[in-house]
């Protein structure tokens, strides 16, 4: 096989080859397979492969919130540069080849002449002499031929019809013999004989141009090595930048479409173009929604601490107000002052002062209504109702604490002791009545009566509305009642002699009858409120001896029973004044 640059041939040979290939000169091709080489298409295929890789790289992680490749780092600019540069180089090469083929002055293709095969698909001709043809096959049923040359290359031709195929087959068989005959011709006839078989044999035509046809190459085709990296750098960087912008916008669109905090946080971790909007508005809004879903004010308050500056302050205020309102409603449904106070304690900046105050007032109104309907005696006096209403009004403002306190005003049993000491049934100091009316002996009576009144009072009202307890006893009989700081029921009492003595053989002794003057005065700290007085008069009690003879120290038991009976009777009077009997 020989290679021959067409543009380095003499002009006569160029013109003759052009005429032979195009069919206007002799010899015409025995067979022809017209068409350019596959090389530009290979370059195009390579460019397509680079484009596919570029698209794959472009789409990796595109708009994906969960991909580390969502925003491709600067290290990948090199990959874009290489792929775009390689694609550009392949395209320039393909374009240059197509331009080179289009500029050929003959129709590109593979031609079979009597001298052999001329591959004229490029400007560099590849010439396979007839001696290099190792086999020829054809024609096939489809009028096809295959010519195989040394080295393994083969060329396929197709005749237009069976007649042409038959002539071609005959020409192929006779080609070698014709070439041998031409070479054996005389010296003077040999050029003409060879020229009839070989299109590369030319004759000078004095009327034809003598300058060889020159190859024309577009300037850009010469600089593919420079164009490719320049385009790769500029376009690769631009594609990388645009791709990251597009991916950022898609991530933003996806995050906002999802609207939940994890998606927005995922964008914040990778995106940048819309970071300000998400950080100030969208993410706080999504996290506010999460806090609202927890359904507690605590969750919202924690949210506010974590988000001191946002662009949705009105939404946060609205959500907090609603949550406060809902939690206050829960406290209202509990129907207790404790629940409402717990609400205000947990949320001191609730901003619902008027609502809380109204809710607390409603609890006290309900407590008063319940007292009137269920706890007050049927014949309750207007004064008692008015006092209880004032009492609950005070408790609503100042607190539920109420006290009951005893005031011992001594006794008047000294005269009885004088006569007891002169009586023949006198048993010594154990017989003196005053011995059993001192603080030590009256304290159990106070405790028992105080506990009875406190229990009934606290049964009528919730502890957080009004809670009574027993306060410190006033022991000075001459001291006036002190000013009070909480509503207080003072119970004054004094033991008096009934003027008579009773004697007993079993148990042996002399005893005085005792009357107890008890007076309850329920007072408010507000001096303008008239105290509620309960004063049944003196309760007289006489000694009882049944079953006492077998008791050690019967005197203590007899006087204790008298006091207990009087205190019990007085307690019933107090409770009957304030509460219904149960």
Q: What is the average per-residue confidence, as pLDDT, rounded to a whole number?
A: 91
The structure class reads: alpha+beta
Side by side, the strands of the main sheet go 1-5-4-3-2
Q: What percentage of amino acids are in beta strands?
A: 15-25%
Number of helices: 16
End-to-end gap: 132 Å
Order of helices and strands: EHEHHEEEEEEHHHHHHHHHHEHHEEEEH
Rg over CA atoms, rounded to whole Å, is 62 Å
Percent helix: 40-55%
Low-confidence segments: none
Shape by Cα distribution: rod-shaped
- Number of distinct beta strands: 13
- Main sheet record: 5 strands, antiparallel
3D architecture notes:
- This protein has 16 helices and 13 strands.
- The protein has helices spanning 11-22, 39-59, 77-102, 162-183, 190-195, 224-258, 261-270, 275-294, 297-306, 313-334, 337-346, 353-375, 382-398, 414-422, 439-460, 554-578; strands at residues 2-5, 31-34, 109-113, 116-119, 124-129, 133-137, 144-149, 154-158, 401-412, 467-470, 488-505, 508-523, 532-541.
- The chain is rod-shaped, with a radius of gyration of 62 Å.
Task: Give the SSE map.
Elements: E1 2-5, H1 11-22, E2 31-34, H2 39-59, H3 77-102, E3 109-113, E4 116-119, E5 124-129, E6 133-137, E7 144-149, E8 154-158, H4 162-183, H5 190-195, H6 224-258, H7 261-270, H8 275-294, H9 297-306, H10 313-334, H11 337-346, H12 353-375, H13 382-398, E9 401-412, H14 414-422, H15 439-460, E10 467-470, E11 488-505, E12 508-523, E13 532-541, H16 554-578
Parallel strand pairs: 9-10, 9-11
Antiparallel strand pairs: 1-5, 2-3, 3-4, 4-5, 6-7, 7-8, 11-12, 12-13
Helix pairs in contact: 2-3, 3-6, 6-7, 7-8, 8-9, 9-10, 12-13, 15-16
């Amino acid at each position: 096989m020989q290679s021959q640059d067409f543009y380095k041939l003499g002009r006569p040979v160029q013109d003759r080859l052009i005429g032979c290939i195009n069919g206007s000169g002799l010899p015409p091709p025995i067979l022809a397979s017209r068409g350019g080489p596959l090389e530009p298409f290979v370059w195009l295929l390579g460019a397509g492969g680079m484009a596919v890789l570029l698209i794959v790289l472009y789409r990796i992680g595109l708009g994906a919130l969960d991909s580390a490749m969502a925003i491709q780092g600067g290290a990948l600019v090199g990959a874009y540069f290489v792929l775009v540069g390689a694609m550009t180089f392949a395209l320039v090469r393909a374009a240059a080849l197509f331009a080179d083929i289009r500029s050929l002055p003959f129709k590109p293709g593979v031609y079979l002449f009597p001298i052999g095969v001329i591959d004229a698909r490029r400007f560099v001709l590849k010439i396979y002499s007839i001696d290099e043809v190792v086999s020829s096959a054809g024609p096939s049923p489809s009028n096809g031929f295959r010519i195989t040359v040394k080295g393994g290359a083969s060329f396929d031709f197709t005749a237009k019809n069976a007649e042409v195929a038959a002539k071609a087959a005959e020409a192929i068989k006779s080609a070698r013999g014709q070439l041998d005959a031409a070479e054996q011709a005389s010296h003077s006839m040999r050029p003409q004989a060879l020229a009839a078989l070989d299109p590369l044999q030319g004759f000078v035509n004095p009327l034809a141009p003598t300058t060889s046809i020159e190859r024309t190459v577009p300037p850009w085709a010469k600089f593919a090595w420079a164009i490719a990296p320049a385009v790769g750098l500029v376009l690769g960087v631009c594609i990388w930048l645009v791709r990251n912008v597009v991916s950022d916008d898609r991530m933003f669109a996806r995050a906002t479409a999802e609207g939940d905090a994890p998606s927005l946080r995922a964008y914040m971790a990778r995106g940048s173009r819309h970071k300000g909007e998400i950080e100030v508005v969208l993410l706080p809004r999504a996290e506010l929604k999460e806090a609202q879903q927890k359904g507690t004010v605590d969750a919202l308050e924690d949210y506010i601490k974590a988000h001191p500056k946002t662009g949705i302050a009105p939404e946060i205020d609205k959500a907090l107000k609603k949550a406060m309102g809902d939690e206050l409603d829960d406290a209202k449904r509990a129907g207790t002052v404790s629940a409402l106070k717990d609400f205000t304690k947990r949320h001191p900046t609730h901003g619902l002062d008027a609502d809380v105050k109204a809710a607390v007032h409603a609890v006290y109104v309900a407590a008063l209504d319940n007292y009137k309907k269920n706890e007050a005696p049927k014949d309750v006096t207007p004064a008692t109702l008015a006092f209880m209403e004032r009492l609950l009004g005070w408790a609503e403002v100042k607190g539920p604490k109420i006290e009951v306190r005893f005031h011992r005003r001594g006794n008047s049993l000294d005269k009885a002791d004088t006569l007891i000491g002169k009586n023949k049934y006198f048993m010594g100091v154990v017989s003196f009545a005053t011995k059993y009316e001192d603080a030590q002996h009256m304290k159990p009576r106070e405790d028992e009566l105080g506990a009875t009144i406190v229990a009934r009072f606290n049964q009528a009202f919730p502890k957080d509305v009004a809670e009574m307890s027993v306060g410190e006893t006033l022991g000075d009989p001459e001291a006036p009642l002190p000013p009070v700081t909480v509503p207080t029921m003072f119970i004054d009492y004094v033991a008096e002699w009934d003027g008579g003595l009773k004697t007993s053989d079993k148990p042996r002794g002399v005893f005085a009858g005792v009357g107890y003057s008890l007076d309850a005065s329920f007072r408010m700290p507000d001096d303008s409120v008239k105290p509620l007085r309960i004063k049944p008069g003196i309760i007289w009690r006489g000694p009882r001896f049944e079953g006492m003879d077998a008791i050690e120290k019967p005197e203590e038991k007899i006087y204790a029973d008298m006091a207990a009976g009087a205190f019990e009777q007085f307690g019933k009077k107090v409770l009957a004044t304030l509460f219904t009997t149960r």
